[in-house]
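Worked Example 4.2. Consider the chain below.
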Amino acid sequence: MKIIAIIIILTLIPFTLTGCQDAKGIENLAYVTAIGFDIGEDNLIKLTFQFAKLTSSDQSGSSQPQSSENVTIDCSSFDSGLNIVNSYISKKVNLSHCKIIVFSEEIATMGILEHVNVLASDREIRPDCNVLISKCKAKDFLENSVPTLTNLTPRYYEILLNSKEYTGFSENVPLWKFFINLRNSTEESVAVLCGLNSSYTGYSGEDKNLMDKDVSYKAGETPLSGKTISQNMGLAVFSYDQLVGEMDAIDTVSYLMLTNDLDSCNISVPNPFENNSIINVKLELKKRTKNNVELINGSPFIESNIYLNGSITSISLNTDDSKTETLSTIEEYIESYVAYNVKFLLYKTAKYFKSDIVGFGKKIVNNYLTIDEWKSLNWAALYKNSFFNVNVEVTINPSSLFVKG
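Applying the procedure from the previous section yields the following structure tokens:
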């Protein structure tokens, strides 16, 4: 009986083992780190796929992405382009590690809902993949995005986008949020603004003083030089699925304050105690911004109350910080500066962009019992008639006044 039992067990064991004939190892896949959309010839789209090159590590023997290679194709749709690229390269294209999706301004101005729908429904593309709008061709942006301070292209994109945590000059815009807001009747979409710097574009900035100029840059305008010439600064503004405008650095800081997404930022304000001198201050949200909306004579009245904590990072040696009124005067100047810039952005969104990117519509939609009642209000058209009031409260850390610059 033992012999029979052993024979039966040995016969059944092969059927319980998992086969690996269909398994795809890392060496059989081509990992896409970025996708670019441009307008191609004859009303086609031009797709650029950026692939991570895998090289073996000397110590562990594992494969690590060390550099990238771009493949560009003119095609009628994303799926057709992907199929063509799959037949061109020696490995199967894998989109699960894609970090950014870049649309050129040219194609974004025409409307990109069709392309975003395809990307959002693709099972391989992760919903936290970031959406960027490039002031130059997406192909050029990707070709000039050379990793700095790291050999890993995917890691470089993560560092690039996470700069919003300590500058406030940009924002992370995941695909899922961008997709939802393209169809949202209470909030419009924004995307990360990117481009190539002035040595590439030949940009010549406006005649502004240095303090204003430092925060009025947008991607592609900052006078930087280095190994990479790709930049992200500012945001691209959408109305439905069409690009309608751009926000510079200080606009973006104001936007993050309004949407409660500001981590920290550093700004310069005029020194009230000394001509031709500035005070540098680091600002963070003290508590959540309160936005209120009401209709007055058929026009939206929007009030924003912003609460900030601040620390002086540098101040003139000639400033007398021994007086008790010094702190309150500095706080008033910062409050005035922030309020002016926030109000300027709000009027720009209403009168120029005609796009409610902050999501004020969420504050008033609950006043309507049915979707039909809300739609009959036509918030998108009504928003351009808005008028605003902005209140800012800044609390400066007293000990930071002793930091001299």
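The chain has two domains: 26-247, 250-405. Residues 85 and 185 are 37 Å apart (CA to CA). Compare this with Example 4.1 before moving on.
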